[in-house]
């Protein structure tokens, strides 16, 4: 072998090695680029389906099996009738106090099957039942993010809880494809019991969005504002902030705020003041349009923020499954963000699609929401 060809081979092999090393250094978190990116459709709209409080995995050896099959039917039915571009799973995937250590996360595969069948991307928040003696948030995260359709993130691992992140929504294919037009915020209200911690299933994790997370939220908002200006945003969190309780105490006239209001009082984050940093951050976030919670299976209304003008709307999701407490008919809260008509600006509409196909509580969350008169929701 000549010296030149030896040099060639050394160079070739070194380059090859460097490339191999580079590719192997890509950690699982960097798989991001293969995920679908959220984009408005041709008409300038994005529709979200919120599945709340699925509570899979109860009573493994009996009625729980049928219960989960019925819940899967709810998801399938609704996805057969609506065509969202994103699903949000808004906490309490699994009733973790009922499941077994060796297979608690098996339920995740059953939960997401209807979403995978529709090739529908989803983003989650975790609930207080997702952390229990035999189920950890970390395991849940590992399992759900093994699907390319999962957009769930943990943006800053130093924050308490896991599902603290945001997703950007980009303009329609023919328009501002490279520019985000809206933000979806996701927060972890934590709660539940530490994994494999005795006494089993004794809730020991604080059940509110941590003040550190509230600070992170404000910083991220400022950064996004510096880059893109004020963007419309929606927020998702499992346990309601205390403003939801204040709204309910204010009396929620069903002709203005349609939707079942049977969970009285609203079960909130902490005892009413622990979430103050988070609530202040929500109020300080310019462009934040509305906040969507789960947790209370018997509430499905949207309210104005009590005592405030120009504050985000407060919306309960709709219990979407047969697991968990309560026998209210099941449904899915749908949210449609539309940038279609430039003159009107952005419009946000929401309704509940019931398991039987009915559409109830369809409202426009606009400037006159709270004054506009709506039919009260029957059949919920
Ligand atoms: C946790 O899982 C183990 C192993 O399957 C089971 O024996 C135990 O009863 C479960 N414990 C609780 C508290 O759910
Ligand atoms: C999990 O394990 C339990 C106990 O062995 C069993 O009864 C149950 O069917 C299993 N669940 C799943 C989803 O595999
Ligand atoms: C808000 O939406 C309702 C229902 O579509 C409509 O009647 C009302 O005029 C809207 N208000 C504004 C300010 O556009």
Automatic annotation (TrEMBL):
It comes from Pseudomassariella vexata. Gene3D superfamilies: 3.60.21.10. Coiled coil: none annotated. One of its GO terms (cellular component) is cytoplasm. GO terms for molecular function: hydrolase activity, acting on ester bonds. Pfam families: Metallophos. This is Calcineurin-like phosphoesterase. It comes from the Eukaryota. The lineage of its organism: Eukaryota, Fungi, Dikarya, Ascomycota, Pezizomycotina. Residues 47-297 form the Calcineurin-like phosphoesterase domain.
């Amino acid at each position: 072998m000549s010296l030149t060809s030896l040099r060639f081979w050394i160079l070739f092999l070194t380059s090859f090695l460097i490339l191999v090393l580079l590719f192997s250094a890509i950690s699982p978190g960097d798989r991001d680029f293969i995920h679908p990116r959220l984009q408005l459709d041709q008409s300038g709209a994005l529709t979200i389906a919120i599945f709340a409080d699925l509570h899979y995995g109860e009573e493994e050896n009996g009625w729980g099996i049928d219960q989960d099959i019925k819940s899967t039917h709810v998801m399938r039915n609704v996805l057969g009738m609506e065509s969202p571009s994103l699903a949000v799973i808004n906490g309490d995937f699994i009733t973790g106090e009922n499941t077994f250590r060796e297979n608690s996360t098996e339920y995740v595969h059953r939960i997401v099957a209807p979403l995978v069948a529709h090739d529908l991307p989803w983003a989650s928040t975790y609930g207080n039942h997702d952390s229990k003696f035999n189920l950890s948030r970390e395991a849940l995260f590992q399992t759900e993010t093994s699907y390319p359709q999962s957009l769930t993130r943990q943006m800053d691992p130093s924050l308490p809880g896991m599902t603290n992140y945001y997703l950007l929504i980009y303009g329609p294919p023919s328009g501002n494809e490279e520019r985000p037009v809206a933000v979806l915020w996701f927060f972890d209200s934590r709660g539940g019991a530490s994994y494999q911690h005795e006494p089993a299933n004794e809730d020991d994790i604080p059940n509110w969005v941590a003040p550190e997370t509230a600070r992170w939220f404000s910083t991220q908002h400022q950064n996004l504002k510096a880059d893109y200006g004020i963007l419309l945003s929606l927020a998702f969190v499992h346990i309601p902030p205390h403003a939801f309780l204040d709204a309910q105490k204010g009396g929620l006239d069903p002709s203005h705020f349609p939707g079942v209001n049977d969970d009285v009082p609203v079960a909130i984050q902490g005892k009413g003041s622990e979430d103050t940093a988070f609530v202040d951050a929500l109020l300080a976030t310019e462009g934040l349009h509305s906040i969507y919670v789960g947790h209370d299976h018997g509430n499905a209304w949207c309210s104005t923020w009590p005592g405030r003008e120009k504050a985000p709307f407060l919306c309960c999701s709709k219990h979407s499954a047969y697991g968990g407490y309560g026998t209210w008919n099941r449904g899915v809260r749908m949210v449609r963000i539309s940038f279609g008509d430039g003159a009107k600006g952005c419009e946000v509409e929401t309704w509940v699609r019931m398991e039987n196909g009915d559409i109830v509580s369809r409202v426009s969350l606009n400037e006159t929401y709270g004054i506009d008169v709506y039919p009260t929701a029957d059949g919920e």
